[in-house]
Design the sequence.
């Protein structure tokens, strides 16, 4: 149940949060708290990287709902990256997709947010919101 | 395509209800359980803000226990006042939409809190007709209205929440009652114990025996009963019987009791009334232990049928009576009386051996000596018999080789 873990880093004005494992237990509320801290500290750009997320249930969905709401309340931007098909599906059913920008990877999200990749390279516009 | 999404949504709801069921039966504590439930429900309906209340009947309040998505909310300060007439106005396990609020007194009276929580749906849940709790759901992400299908799912959720919460409340109530019963039982035991000890002291004072005769008889009896493998409850019983065995002496004239020897026939029959009086007194008391009255009635019986008051023979005497008879006589032998000095320990042992099979039961005597022998040999760390004998001695108990041999068990008839 609780093979959930979390790491995060900030790249200039962008916070990248990387949850791992199963987001299906109340322990994953840490994800909500972590993003809330970045927002409270004034960061306006948030990226959640789904590469290592294995499973999301309704509890996980509810945690993302809070993150979306909180980001909107702060007037900040929220991007999801590296989502698998079943992640996208559950977010679609819940009507969450319309409230976030979804990118295939971190580079694409950074390009959308800053016009450059995390390593600073300018890229051609590839903001293909899914 | 729309049909496919509808099917997926249905599957999603079913999976969420299954999650809710799993949380309900989990071993988490109630507040963790309720928090998980609230997250599942808000996840199902895409609601970022929600609050869960539990009905506090004593205070006539719905107390907030878990909330989600509110910034800077003071949980302690959020209570919805709910009176009996309010409860009657609720539709059981049915969501009440914000549009209905202005028409219902309960919502009008608590409007400040509902505004603060931005409640769009209020879902009261009932079990067996009793209000158990309620959920307030805020605006859905994006502001879409709650569809009829979603309201139907909420009805199912309400029933599930009601059962989970009322089970938890019942469990807590049971645990509270069990703790209260344990406390009452401990109190009762203390009162019993104090009362019995007080009686024992009063009996010994009246008798003129050395102090603590009843206490020692009780201790010897317990030691023998344990040696025989008696159950804890029965050991407790013989302890109490030991403490109270002479209670009947309270009624007998002090001068007769203290005279002790050279009694006239009248005086002797007077003093021999005490076991029967003990029985009369104690048979009126409902003890938590069995046969206290019979134990005290027969503590002067002998296995050869020459005892009193009923001159019963070995086969008619219980093991407890035989234990008590030996314990009582042994203490009488080994303590000073107003009319004679105590026997030496060696003499007392010889006397018990001599009376084995006439006054005392064979088996009980063997067990008694077996225990003493093990105490003498240092095989038992808790010296339950010798400890009392040594209280008035300058040196440790020593017995003659003869007595020691007899105690081996083989020397007894
Ligand atoms: Fe007696």
Sequence:
């Amino acid at each position: 149940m609780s093979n959930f873990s979390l790491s995060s880093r900030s790249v200039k004005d962008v916070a990248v949060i990387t949850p791992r494992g199963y987001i299906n237990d109340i322990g994953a509320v840490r994800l909500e708290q972590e993003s809330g801290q970045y927002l409270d500290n004034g960061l306006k750009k948030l990226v959640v990287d789904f590469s290592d997320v294995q499973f999301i249930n309704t509890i996980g969905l509810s945690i993302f709902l809070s993150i979306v709401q909180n980001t909107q309340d702060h007037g900040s931007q929220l991007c999801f990256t590296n989502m698998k098909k079943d992640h996208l599906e559950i977010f679609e059913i819940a009507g969450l997709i319309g409230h976030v920008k979804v990118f295939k990877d971190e580079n694409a999200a950074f390009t959308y947010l800053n016009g450059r990749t995390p390593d600073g390279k300018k890229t051609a516009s590839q903001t293909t919101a899914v | 395509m729309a049909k496919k999404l509808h099917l997926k949504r249905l599957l999603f709801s079913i999976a969420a209800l299954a999650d809710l069921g799993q949380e309900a039966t989990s071993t988490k504590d109630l507040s963790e359980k309720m928090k998980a439930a609230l997250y599942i429900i808000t996840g199902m309906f895409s609601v970022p803000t929600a609050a869960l209340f539990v009905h506090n009947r004593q205070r006539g309040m719905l107390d907030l226990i878990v909330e989600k998505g509110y910034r800077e909310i003071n949980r302690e300060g959020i209570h919805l006042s709910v009176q009996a007439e309010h409860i009657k106005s609720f539709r059981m396990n049915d969501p009440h939409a914000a549009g209905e609020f202005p028409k219902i007194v309960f919502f009008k009276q608590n409007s400040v809190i509902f505004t603060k929580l931005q409640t769009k749906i209020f879902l009261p849940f009932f079990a067996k007709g009793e209000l158990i709790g309620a959920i307030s759901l805020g605006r859905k992400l994006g502001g879409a209205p709650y569809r009829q299908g979603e309201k139907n799912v909420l009805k199912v959720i309400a029933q599930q929440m009601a059962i989970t919460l009322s089970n938890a409340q019942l469990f807590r109530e049971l645990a509270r009652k069990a703790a209260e019963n344990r406390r009452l039982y401990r109190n009762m035991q203390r009162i019993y114990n104090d009362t019995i000890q007080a009686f024992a002291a009063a009996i010994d004072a009246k008798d003129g025996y050395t102090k603590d005769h009843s206490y020692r008889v009780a201790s010897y009896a317990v030691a023998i009963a344990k040696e025989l493998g008696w159950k804890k409850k029965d050991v407790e019983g013989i302890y109490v019987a030991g403490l109270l065995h002479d209670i009947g002496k309270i009624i007998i004239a002090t001068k007769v009791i203290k005279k002790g020897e050279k009694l006239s026939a009248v005086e002797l029959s007077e003093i021999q009334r005490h076991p029967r009086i003990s029985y009369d007194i104690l048979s009126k008391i409902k003890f938590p232990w069995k046969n206290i009255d019979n134990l005290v009635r027969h503590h002067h019986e002998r296995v050869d049928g020459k005892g009193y008051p009923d001159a019963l023979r070995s086969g008619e005497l219980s093991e407890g009576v035989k234990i008590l008879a030996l314990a009582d006589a042994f203490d009488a032998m080994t303590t000073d009386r107003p009319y004679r000095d105590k026997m030496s320990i060696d003499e007392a042992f010889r006397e018990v051996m001599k009376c084995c099979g006439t006054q005392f039961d064979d088996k009980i005597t063997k067990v008694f000596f077996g225990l003493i022998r093990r105490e003498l040999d240092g095989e038992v760390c808790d010296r339950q018999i010798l400890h009392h004998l040594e209280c008035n001695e300058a040196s440790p108990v020593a017995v003659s080789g003869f007595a020691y041999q007899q105690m081996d068990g083989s020397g007894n008839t």
Q: What stands out?
A: Residues 49 and 69 of chain B are 5 Å apart (CA to CA). The beta strands of chain B are 50-56, 61-68, 79-81, 96-97, 121-127, 130-137.
